[in-house]
Design brief:
Layout lengths: L8 H24 L7 H23 L3 H30 L12 H7 L2 H10 L10 E2 L2 E2 H22 L10
Antiparallel strand pairs: 1-2
Length: 174
């Protein structure tokens, strides 16, 4: 029998980082190989995945003791929950009748040039017709549904790993 791979917090956090890197790799594959242009909601979800990946990576490199691990677990859970909430909102938009949502007006870069980031996020979360289109699915589930599942699992897994798994020897204190 083989030794379980995820026996320490550091290894579990590294696995979380690699999962986020894989999610981003697929997002870029979908954009540049499958030629699926990301909508504004997709861009927000990418930001959440990158932020989650950074949290996992910092937790991996820091390898803290119990108190620090609890803080990382909470941070990972919060970032994943925010990403899952954005994904859930995107799924809700896709379930609305076509044409029932107004337009965001422009792509996210143009909106950021015109107004503060907070207002841009509010405007995007209100919905846009561009975000209603389902251009890719697997087993009948759209990309935002799969991302919701992935972020929920990564958030719960990261929280459980940082609260319950032992620290790998070596690394920082805290």
């Amino acid at each position: 029998m083989g030794v379980p791979v995820l026996t320490t917090r550091r290894r579990a956090n590294l696995a979380g980082f690699l999962a986020c890197a894989g999610l981003m790799a697929f997002a870029y594959y979908a954009e540049y190989v499958l030629h699926l242009a990301p909508c504004n909601m997709c861009i927000l979800q990418r930001v959440c995945v990158v932020a989650l990946g950074v949290a996992f990576l910092v937790a991996t490199l820091h390898n803290p003791q119990r108190t620090g691990a609890r803080a990382y677990g909470a941070l990972i859970a919060i970032v994943a929950a925010l990403g899952a909430a954005v994904s859930a909102r995107h799924v809700w938009m896709q379930m609305q009748p076509v044409g029932s949502l107004g337009s965001c007006g422009a792509d996210i870069a143009t909106l950021l040039d015109m107004m503060p980031a907070y207002d841009v996020v509010k405007r995007i979360l209100k919905g846009g017709a561009e975000c209603q289109a389902i251009t890719w699915s697997l087993l009948g589930l759209s990309m935002p549904v799969w991302l919701f599942i992935a972020l929920s699992g990564l958030g719960l897994g990261g929280l459980a790993a940082n609260l319950g798994l032992p620290r790998e020897s070596g690394g920082a204190r805290g």
